[in-house]
From TrEMBL:
GO cellular component term, pick one: nucleolus
Record protein name field: NOL11 protein
The organism of origin for this protein: Nicator chloris
Family annotation (PANTHER family): NUCLEOLAR PROTEIN 11
Cell compartments where the protein resides: Nucleus, Nucleolus
Cited InterPro entries: NOL11, Nol11_C, NOL11_N
Nucleolar protein 11 N-terminal domain sequence ranges: 1-289
One biological process term in Gene Ontology: maturation of SSU-rRNA
């Protein structure tokens, strides 16, 4: 997730539809999918074509496949029949019994009880809900009827198994969570013949606080005392807001929450102490940790909720006024780390125990909101120096956010040196201070942008493109007066006093311009070639250093390509000329490595060159001024291919020569002539 690069992609044929979620078999490291209800597909990560993967057509429609870490995959059919995958693959066309009649499955879950998998699913028929508990390997099935609730019906279910007891949690339409306990019975023939048992339920939680009601859409269990509910918070006289909330079921209190302003799909998943949900158009990952529940903590939360109304619903990603004062002082805590761009290096909202006389980071920043510049920066430097190691990164992120917030409120305020010092000396990321680069772009702080591009691992592709466009649009004359770090260019671009590059004779690996002049149909004048054949840098030192910072930024080509298509033609040509210059420079060296600190690698240069040509190919072909550049680039690449092709031809002979050198006695002087055939 941190690199945002797709590791694999598989597609069914046109007209086919994946009809249940794909799962991973933990034992064989294979993927399992079902398309068109009955067609089972199994493949491994290295398989490319899904159509050539293992295929089995089943005799009944599949509702869901559940994969258990130590129990193997379990297949639930729409008719209520259950099979382990191993048994199903022995005879794919085996008859599957219909356990339910006229009922529709609403939810299912699989769990391990000892060494046995247990499958639980709920069904609905004519407003009545039923619960099925089945042990597939023992072929034992129990059916229960859920006690009806007047004027309310279940919206979603979740469950867990503890001490031979299934705890089924039901989120109802009356904004309440109910609990149903189902003992895992010892199966006998007499029990199977007994009449259907009606399950009674008990109220576990009311999803309301200080007059605000949470209209839940999804529910997951975190541990025996905590649940997470995704839904819309409806407060009197206010617009509903979508929120992810965590509740303490033991003491009936709201523990913490996160507002989701971009909206969600209404679905929430939980796996290995991480939440997964769709927020806007991106996958959001939130790490959490539930600590031991205590009465003191719950009472403290309850008192806070009575005095602060709905401000208890905190936004974990912002530092606005009332949110700054929140200090999580309870022994019971939920530590969360939210990520809005599929990257786990994001701002952490870490719960910490504090001494009563110690101000929280949020309270301190709120007190400094209107302080003078000197007082603000002095206090912030002390705060960063004293911050405990576990919370250091989050504290520094809060400090930078406080500075950028003041920059927005006061256009005349901009602590350039302070911000540059923080970025240079601290381990930051874009998601910890998302407004920093936007403020730097507005202030045209090119040095700070250069530092961010070189150090931040998670910059959005749109911001990378904005920086690239800004760098290319600034004139060379203006850049002469701007201080940027030249360490990445000073070692391979030689400059005279008049700022013109020193011409040196270049012999690339396997390439001379005169030797391959006949390789292109277009004859070019020598004086025009000297300007664009890669021997002279098309940009000045400052612009080259800024462009190198862009080349260092991590990106996903799928997300960056649409932005590069909007790059103006002249800027695209200039950038391509610089990339071509770097390509030639890299090829001069035997190890294809440029000297200097943070100099671009040949892989970075080639990746950007290919990406830029993909995005701007039509424009490049149509523009007359790009024709010469494309021609020279084509010649150089073809010469490189020919050169390495010739090297491959003599590779065997060179290896034989190396072997003979090892066999030769090192102390004996001799002259030998080896004929390479």
């Amino acid at each position: 997730i941190s690199d945002q690069k797709p590791l694999g992609c598989w597609s069914v044929k046109h007209g086919q539809i994946l009809t249940c979620p794909v799962v991973c078999n933990f034992e064989t490291h294979e993927y399992i999918a079902v398309h068109d209800d009955k067609v089972l597909r199994i493949w491994k990560n290295e398989d490319i074509n899904l159509d050539k993967a293992f295929k089995a057509t089943l005799s009944a429609d599949v509702y869901r496949i559940h994969s258990l870490p130590h129990g193997g995959p379990v297949v639930l059919f729409r008719g209520g029949g259950v099979r382990t995958l191993d048994v199903l693959l022995e005879a794919p066309q085996q008859e599957i019994e219909n356990v339910i009649s006229g009922e529709v499955i609403r939810w299912s879950g699989a769990f391990m009880e000892g060494q046995q998998p247990v499958l639980i699913f709920t069904t609905e028929k004519d407003g009545d809900f039923f619960v099925y508990v089945q042990k597939p390997k023992l072929s034992h099935l129990h059916r229960y009827k859920l006690e009806q609730q007047e004027s309310a019906k279940p919206l979603c279910f979740t469950a867990h198994i503890t001490n031979q007891t299934v705890t089924l949690l039901c989120l109802y339409s009356n904004d309440s969570v109910y609990q149903v306990l189902i003992p895992l019975q010892q199966d006998t023939e007499e029990e199977e013949e007994e009449e259907e048992e009606i399950l009674s339920k008990s109220l576990l939680l009311n999803l309301s606080v200080s007059g605000a009601v949470l209209k839940g859409t999804s529910l997951v269990v975190l541990d025996k005392d905590h649940v997470a509910v995704l839904g819309s918070l409806a407060a009197p006289g206010k617009e509903p807001r979508e929120c992810l909330t965590i509740w303490n079921t033991k003491f009936q209190t709201l523990q913490t929450s996160k507002e989701l302003p971009l909206g969600t799909s209404g679905q929430l998943w939980c796996y290995e102490e991480k939440f997964f949900l769709i927020h806007g158009k991106v996958l959001t990952v939130i790490m959490y940790k539930c600590e031991t529940s205590s009465l003191a903590a719950a009472v403290g939360k309850l008192k806070d909720s009575q005095t602060s109304d709905v401000s208890l619903f905190l936004n974990w990603n912002t530092l606005e006024d009332e949110e700054l004062v929140v200090s999580f002082q309870s022994q019971e805590s939920v530590a969360l780390k939210a990520e809005s761009r599929m990257n786990l290096r994001s701002r952490r909202s870490t719960v910490a125990e504090e001494q009563p006389e110690t101000l929280s980071v949020g309270q301190l920043l709120l007190n400094l909101k209107d302080a003078s510049t000197y007082v603000l920066e002095t206090k912030l430097k002390k705060l960063m120096a004293k911050a405990p190691t576990p919370d250091l990164q989050a504290t520094i992120g809060c400090v930078v956010t406080a500075l950028t917030d003041r920059c927005k409120r006061n256009p005349k305020y901009y602590p350039q040196n302070f911000l540059q010092q923080i970025v240079e000396t601290r381990d930051l990321s874009y998601s910890l201070c998302p407004d920093l680069m936007a403020v730097a772009l507005e202030k045209k702080d090119l040095h700070l942008l250069q530092l961010c591009l070189e150090r931040f691992p998670d910059i959005p592709e749109e911001v990378i493109y904005t920086c690239l466009k800004a760098f290319l649009s600034i004139s060379e004359a203006h850049l002469q007066s701007i201080d940027v770090n030249l360490d990445s260019v000073i070692c391979y671009i030689d400059v005279e006093l008049d700022n013109k590059e020193v011409k040196t004779e270049i012999v690339e690996n396997g390439f001379r311009a005169e030797m391959d002049q006949d390789m292109c149909d277009t004859k070019l004048p020598r004086e025009s070639r000297s300007r664009s054949d890669g021997e002279s840098c098309p940009v000045g030192l400052q612009k080259a250093a800024l462009l190198n910072a862009v080349l260092h930024a991590a990106y996903t080509d799928t997300f960056l390509l649409p932005h590069l298509k909007n790059l103006p033609a002249q800027q695209a040509i200039l950038f391509l000329r610089y990339l071509y210059y770097l390509y030639v420079k890299c090829s001069e060296k035997v190890n294809t490595t440029l000297p200097g600190i943070r100099s671009p690698t040949i892989n970075q240069v080639m990746d950007w060159m290919c990406l830029l040509l993909d995005a701007q190919f039509t424009v490049m072909v149509m523009l007359p001024e790009a024709k010469e550049l494309l021609s020279n680039l084509h010649k150089f690449v073809r010469a490189q291919v020919r050169f390495y092709s010739e090297l491959n031809k003599i590779e065997g002979s060179l290896q034989e020569l190396q072997r003979l050198n090892h066999l030769r006695e090192s102390q004996t002087y001799s002259i030998e002539v080896l004929e390479i055939i």
